[in-house]
Amino acid sequence: MDVRARIATLTLLTASLVTAVPLAQQTQNPSPMVEHTRPHPRLPDTPPEGQREKLELGTLFVPKGVHGKARLVIHFHGSQTIPEIAVARLGATAVISMQLGVGSGAYGRPFADPQVFARIVAEAEAKSHLKFSSIILTSWSAGYGAVRAILRVPEHYARVNGVLLMDGMHASYVGEAPGTGPGQESVLVPEDLNIFAQFARDAVAGRKRMIVTHSEIFPGTYASTTETTDWLVSTLGLKLKAVLKWGPGGMQQLGEARAGKFQLLGYAGNSAPDHVDQLQALPDLLKLLK
Prior knowledge:
The chain is an alpha/beta fold and about 290 residues long. It has one domain: Rossmann fold, CATH 3.40.50. It is built from ten helices and ten strands. It has helices at about 5-20, 80-90, 105-110, 115-130, 145-150, 155-160, 195-205, 225-235, 270-280, 280-290; strands at about 50-55, 60-65, 70-75, 95-100, 130-140, 160-165, 210-215, 240-245, 250-260, 260-265. The chain has a ten-stranded mixed β-sheet with strand order 1-2-4-3-5-6-7-10-9-8, sandwiched between helices. Helix 2 (about 80-90) crosses helix 10 (about 280-290). The chain starts with a helix and ends with a helix.
């Protein structure tokens, strides 16, 4: 067999194998673990002074000097020290920090019982001797699963005054796969996002406060925060505005949408340090939400 015949045979064989055995889909697109363009500063790993109490879920922290009435922040995922630093800087605020595992399901499952949230808040009031004037839910990455589960309970929804989602509002794809191009755009499962859209509408109307941030990370097997925030902006009938300016901790802001007491802030970066930057920005973002 001459060279041309061999090439033709190999081509046909390769084509038949590709057709018969499709490539397996990756569980998640890996993000680069390093990034040297931006500074990525980190907060000190030194817990501030104050009272700490173990709760049914999570740890309550009341900064030194906080008495009587205070805001309550409940933070999900990523760190205990960073939320404590954030509320210590904010003033008149306590925080419950929760680290419940890996994936949004680990955060959503405990709050499938609608009584859990109310019990934790009551326990925190009893142990801190504080009266909570307002409740703010904050989450990073997978922690959004807890926020979503809590907001789906009407009485909890009514009690929550503000929500901050930091690079963590995801959804499944209809058909369990992203779109591949023009005419085949990705379709997101609306049930995964509808409660966030409801809260955002209330923020636009001035009844609640909400900040949502995103990076440029593309997981692959579920919708990225870029895709979900695009969906949210479209659902709200808002316009996404391109910007180029510095954000907290040297992050580069690329886009925003604002209306009433709702803000969407989009930042550059698809690496692990860019993702962690958003958690590190909690003290600054919490001040914006306040």
